[in-house]
Amino acid sequence: MKARLTLVILPLAVFITAAAIAAGNEKAPSKLRELDYLGGDWQCKGTAFAFGDQPKHAVVATVKGAWILNGMWLDMHYNETKTKANPHPFDVRGFFGYDPEKKKLVLGSLENDGGYSTESSSGWEGDSIVFTGPNHMGGMTANGKDTWTKISKTKLTYSFEIEDKGAWTKLIEETCTR
Q1: How many other CB atoms sit within 10 Å of the CB of residue 85?
Q2: Is the pTM higher than 0.70?
Q3: I want to staple 142 with a disulfide (CB 3.0 to 4.6 A). Which of 45, 84, 162, 166 is the partner?
């Protein structure tokens, strides 16, 4: 009887322990809450600077950000409006999360032109948060830098730059409002 009881209790204890560990792992790290400001809906206007065969032009975009997958990822959907000046608008999905090994916020993005990036950040420094890392686009790889700066609860600026031979070149600059 004791052996049978052990055969039932031991697996049950292992199952309960595993479930408790799994439940603890599902909890989003507090560092992720730093990204709450970027969530929600934004309307953006700005300038895309000349790069490659694309001339300088005005951009208008919407951004929708929502927490997904048990609150572990902030899904940001950036969608530019097609205009005469911008006949090939960007459509980008960015996924912000947290890497507990590196103890950094992370950003992975996918673009409608086949480009993608993997970047990281230590978090907000004052009113700005900067993500840097490799960006793969148009058959090349370059370090990219995405910067968001808080202006108010309802307004921010955004810029994207790439590194070329040690110098940063700004590709886009926008002001966004809720």
Answers
A1: 12
A2: yes
A3: 162
Nearest to 156 by CA among 46, 34, 77: 46
Sequence-distant (≥ 6) Cβ neighbours of residue 24 within 8 angstroms: none
Instruction: Kindly state the tokens that stand for 84.
Output: 């005469």
| 89-120 tens-digit pLDDT | 999 999 999 999 999 999 999 999 999 999 99
Round to whole Å and give the CA distance between 9 and 66: 42
Identify the residue whose tokens are 């951009």. 59
Instruction: Give the C-alpha distances (Å, rounded to integers) separating 36 from 147, 154, 173.
Output: 16, 13, 22
What letter does residue 33 receive in the DSSP assignment?
G
